[in-house]
């Protein structure tokens, strides 16, 4: 049986302690969530999401709230502890590489990629993948996934031409089966497909669906992610049940780039992919 997480106990885990300290210091200074958000340069919804334990604080978030909260690097140090305890050791490198990436190319055959998941869909995936873990572990996994999605958010403060130069681009190829497979409940799937359709309209996101009609493909059943950065450093990320593998060898990376190129020639273009997503919704 899952043990409920007590968010009122600041010593429940490092994430809960971070939030407790953030609320305590903010209250002592007489600051509202909106005032802290404005001083830190974040949207009020981001501050609210962290304080409601729905979003893990990123390093950037901790750095930006530390000064207006007059915390003398307190939250920067706490954030490192949160990340070390909430992110599996072998996944930590993925998070670090992901934050530095300028483009991510991802192929997923069984589920919606993490960067495109809704909170309820992500929770259903975590519960299925971790049947013996506590609710605490599951909720931290969901919070981490929601935090990772910040890298594809558009910067509303920048003009379009500058935002285009700074934003990370995501190109996702998803097997059609992921649209039909019920993760959680039918309602969760409906919301997830709606979200996927909305994300497909973003200027920095390209979604292609690999239809059933293509049959078996060169990467059938084997998901992979290609993370590219301005430093010309490209990493291929592969994950199995308990571990992750990072490929940096140029020849191996080139092979995965070729496979991805082959998959996107087989997949529906973004316009027809969006139509298919909407048709499944009906």
List the helices and strands and how they pair.
Layout: H1 14-28, H2 33-40, H3 44-51, H4 59-66, H5 74-86, H6 89-100, E1 103-108, H7 119-129, H8 135-148, H9 160-166, E2 169-175, H10 177-180, H11 186-199, E3 205-210, E4 224-228, E5 234-239, E6 244-247, H12 250-266, H13 270-281
Parallel strand pairs: 1-2, 2-3
Antiparallel strand pairs: 1-4, 4-5, 5-6
Helix pairs in contact: 1-5, 2-3, 2-4, 4-5, 7-8, 11-13
Plain-language structure description:
By secondary structure, this protein is an alpha/beta fold. The protein folds into 2 domains: 14-85, 434 Repressor (Amino-terminal Domain) (Orthogonal Bundle); 89-281, Endonuclease, Chain A (2-Layer Sandwich). The chain is built from 13 helices and 6 strands. The chain has helices at residues 14-28, 33-40, 44-51, 59-66, 74-86, 89-100, 119-129, 135-148, 160-166, 177-180, 186-199, 250-266, 270-281; strands at residues 103-108, 169-175, 205-210, 224-228, 234-239, 244-247. The two termini are 36 Å apart. Mean pLDDT is 86; it is low at 1-5 and 158-165.
């Amino acid at each position: 049986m899952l043990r409920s997480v007590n968010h009122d106990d600041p010593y429940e885990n490092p994430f809960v302690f971070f939030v407790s300290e953030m609320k305590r210091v903010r209250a002592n200074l007489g600051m509202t969530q909106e005032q802290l958000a404005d001083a830190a340069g974040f949207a009020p919804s981001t501050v609210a999401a962290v304080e409601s334990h729905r979003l893990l604080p990123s390093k950037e978030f901790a750095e930006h709230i530390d000064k207006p909260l007059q915390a003398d690097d307190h939250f920067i140090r706490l954030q490192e502890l949160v990340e070390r305890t909430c992110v599996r050791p072998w996944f930590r490198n993925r998070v670090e590489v992901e934050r530095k990436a300028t483009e991510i190319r991802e192929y997923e055959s069984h589920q919606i990629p993490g960067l495109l998941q809704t909170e309820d869909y992500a929770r259903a995936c975590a519960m299925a993948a971790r049947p013996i873990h506590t609710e605490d572990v599951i909720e931290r996994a969901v919070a981490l996934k929601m935090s990772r999605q910040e890298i594809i958010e558009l910067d509303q403060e920048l003009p379009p031409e500058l935002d285009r130069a700074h934003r990370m681009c995501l190109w996702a190829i998803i097997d059609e089966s992921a649209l039909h497979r019920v993760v959680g409940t039918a309602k969760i799937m409906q919301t997830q497909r709606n979200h996927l359709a909305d994300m497909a309209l973003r200027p920095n996101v390209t979604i292609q669906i690999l239809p059933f009609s293509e049959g078996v493909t060169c990467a059938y059943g084997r998901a992979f992610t290609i993370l590219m950065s301005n430093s010309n450093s490209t990493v291929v990320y592969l994950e199995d049940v308990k571990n992750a593998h990072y490929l940096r060898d140029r020849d191996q990376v080139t092979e995965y780039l070729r496979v991805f190129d082959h998959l996107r020639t087989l997949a529906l273009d973004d316009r027809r992919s969006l139509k298919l997503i909407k048709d499944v919704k009906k």
